[in-house]
Amino acid sequence: MASIVLKNVSKSFRESEIIKDINLNIEDGKCTVLVGPSGCGKSTILRLICGLEEASSGDILIGNQCVNDVPPAGRGLAIVFQSYALYPHMTVFENMAFALKVRKLKKDVIEERVLEAAKILKIEHLVDRKPKELSGGQRQRVAIGRAIVRNPYAFLFDEPLSNLDSGLRCQMRYELAKLKEQLQTTMVYVTHDQAEAMTLADKIVVMRDGVIEQEGSPLELYNSPVNTFVAKFIGSSEMNIIGVKFIKNNDDSSVFELPSREKVSLRLENGVKFSQSKKYQLGIRPEDIEIQSGNAVFMGNKLNGTVSLSENLGGEGYIHVTLTDGSALSIKAQKSISEQPGDSVCLGIKAHKCYLFDEQGRSIFGTYKEHPLSTDIAENAANL
Ligand SMILES: Nc1ncnc2c1ncn2[C@@H]1O[C@H](COP(=O)(O)OP(=O)(O)OP(=O)(O)O)[C@@H](O)[C@H]1O
Ligand SMILES: [Mg+2]
Q1: Nearest atom of ligand 1 to the alpha carbon of 159
Q2: Is residue 317 located within the same domain as residue 178?
Q3: pTM for the complete prediction?
């Protein structure tokens, strides 16, 4: 096990700077998950860490040792790629044993390590097969097994499950989570999958265009995103963001107007001053909106709209609603959905679940530990 530290690391390919002065602390024995849109530099970071690319500037430390001049083989890391990259002419056993043979370990040590890894991954019965005789999930296990036998300081995973169907993915995710507990080895894990990121990560690092936007525990990022980019990126269905105008302060709440001219009242705990000359953005997650057809009985903030699309997934679903000005909101429903396109609905907005951002998308509250909006809804509609 070892910590991995990136200090002011930059990487350019020809004249374009892909990684821009990144500082990152990957803690010993923990799982750090890198997420971000395609092309933001996640794989490049893994390649820099394991030495397949050389940084243009900055230092990379593994276990407090600067490894800038250490070739990949000397860094003691194991990388698992999305394409399993198994040797087709070798059996599962030979694939897993290969790196150990190169290191000239004794035959009985190699056998012991390979069979132990095969047992952990439940592929003992497959060790004599060739990769072409395996399913995708089994191949993926062999690729992970090949990494485990090397007993590395850290595992680097680059979207290891993205070739699998959703059922297998779920199963492998569960098994990786167990493996993480069992091995207690440092992991750096790149994924586009929210569920993988949220369940495997001790820390999630959200990247955009070669810089880190925010890092923190999964729930810190979910509860306290520093900007609209992170707010929309974290969460299995994107946060709704609507431009709002500040109207006025009441005694203990601030009133904002949506483009539909409807108003929401938010009670703030930390005395932030709003200005009528500035623009703001209101964020609300699909899971934090209540929906009711016909005559609504919500207290507090209500919005009226028309269902444009309903997606019924059985136990849950999504309802897409258009407000009177044409702006759209997505709502997650916890039960199967009866609303149909064209139905009028009333939406209840839970004030304490709302987020506020400035015009540039920065959270108005910066990085905060607790959600800044109070748990009360300003219930007296007459105040609006
Ligand atoms: N060897 C290279 N030469 C030139 N450009 C490169 C090279 N490797 C990567 N890039 C560029 O660097 C950027 C980041 O690539 P990278 O593979 O790190 O993205 P990523 O975040 O892993 O994306 P994805 O989610 O699609 O895998 C991309 O614009 C890519 O085209
Ligand atoms: Mg990649």
Answers
A1: 27
A2: no
A3: 0.89
